[in-house]
Amino acid sequence: MTQPLDFFRYRHRSLRAGSTDLAEIAARVGTPAYVYSAEGLLKPFRELQSGLRGLRESTICYAVKSNSNIGVLKLLGDAGAGADLVSGGELLRARKANIPPQRIVFSGVGKTADEIQAGLSYGAHGIYSFHVESLEELELIQSVAERHDVKQARTAFRFNPNIDAKTHPYISTGLKRNKFGLNRAELLEAARRARKLGNVHVCGLSIHIGSQLLSLKPLQAAFQALATMVLEIEALLGHPLEFVDLGGGVGVSYEVRGPKPPSLKEYTRLIVATFGPKSPFRSRLRVLIEPGRTISANAGVLLTRVLFRKARKAKDFLVVDAGMNDLMRPALYGSRHAVLPVRQGTKGKLKRTDLVGPVCESSDCFGQDLQLDTALASGDLLAIMSSGAYGMSMAGNYNSRVRPAEVLVEGNRWRVIRDRETLDDLLRGEHL
Ligand SMILES: *Cc1c(COP(=O)(O)O)cnc(C)c1O
């Protein structure tokens, strides 16, 4: 499993992505800026690929919402990744990055007719699967397919197994109180209904019980529940399913000395044991997974510059030029990120410090009571680590702030993969 410092390390007292000095990037593109390491994205992806090699067929559908920059999607797509989408906008991005339709699945509780139509019309046969989350969605897919003369819209049912993922409530999705998926009764009803629909074909079942899981136990229980459901649904449909999609959600380390998530080896071993050649399924089902943060979280940092220090007796406030609009996770989930100076070796003493942004909310705080060097001063650069997932993809314009630039480091070269927004971008589409 990736760690915050796996792909960003100090050499000659400066923090680098490979051989690239982060200070050089900041000098050229300004701050705040997201910096991603191609190696950091590819390493966990390849580890998952090799872990799943024991299966007859598998596809890693990268969860686009975790980091949806088309440069990132192109890199992963070229390495063999598919995509797990949650909107028509993400479909556009996947297409732009040339991810083939046979590797694309579409999740989410609220797909619109336009989004369904866009998915059906990508390539000759449409995307690999719409993961259906309600009976009404199934009916909508049928009617859109019929209207556009699509013979068989490929669908899967998303099963909500009512299993506690033991993660933050906002990113827990597999409990009956959550809006996601179909419970057993709804699923059986949907299967009965699907048999009567002429333009949809049910090819699989999917689950996704939550994000940032720190134990494999809930996943193991969910896989078992899914395995049982496969047999039940096949009996009802009267034909075998083609695939199972096991969702994403394996946690990563955000803090250098934080809780330890399961390794990717243990995770893939569990998958192969449940659905592989030695399982009761004898590898007859294709297995899909939808990892997001596992691939992108520790592949990125948010570079920010210190604006001011407010020295107080009990603790200082260090005000930086990145805000909660740029990186929302701490404000939204109370998540913690390691914060490192880009230049090592300032010589003050450590003092209790809150690292805060300029946004007019007290939740605009990247870290409370951090032990930071008192010598850190206006102009100094900091890296907010493990910001590659749910960083830029969640960024917004609150306080009328422009969104940051994004940079991809590949080998010893780097390039801008998204320009910093301009003030013109900010007002586009508004009218007096
Ligand atoms: C968000 C999401 C994922 C990815 O979750 P990670 O924790 O980033 O791996 C996968 N599948 C679905 C359906 C999701 O909503």
Would you kindly provide a written description of the structure presented here, covering whatever features stand out?
By secondary structure, the protein is an alpha/beta fold. The chain has two domains: 8-36 and 298-427, Lyase, Ornithine Decarboxylase, Chain A, domain 1; 38-293, TIM Barrel, CATH 3.20.20.10. The protein is built from twelve helices and 20 strands. The strands form three sheets. Strands 4, 13, 14, 15, 16, 17, 18, 19 and 20 form a nine-stranded mixed beta sheet that branches. The protein has an eight-stranded parallel β-barrel with strand order 5-6-7-8-9-10-11-12, surrounded by seven helices. The N and C termini lie far apart (51 Å). The relative contact order is 0.17. The mean pLDDT is 96. The site of pyridoxal-5'-phosphate has 17 residues, from helix 10.
Taking pLDDT < 50 over at least 5 consecutive residues as the criterion, the unreliable ranges are none
Percentage beta strand: 15-25%
Nearest-integer average pLDDT: 96
Structural shape: globular
Oligomer: single chain
Q: Secondary structure elements and their pairing?
A:
Elements: E1 8-11, E2 14-17, E3 20-21, H1 22-29, E4 33-37, H2 38-51, E5 58-63, H3 70-78, E6 82-85, H4 88-96, E7 104-106, H5 113-120, E8 129-132, H6 135-147, E9 153-158, H7 184-195, E10 200-206, H8 217-237, E11 243-245, H9 264-275, E12 286-289, H10 293-296, E13 300-310, E14 316-320, H11 329-333, E15 339-341, E16 350-356, E17 365-373, E18 381-384, E19 405-410, E20 413-418, H12 423-427
Parallel strand pairs: 4-19, 5-6, 5-12, 6-7, 7-8, 8-9, 9-10, 10-11, 11-12, 14-16
Antiparallel strand pairs: 1-2, 2-3, 4-13, 13-14, 13-18, 15-18, 16-17, 19-20
The structure holds pyridoxal-5'-phosphate.
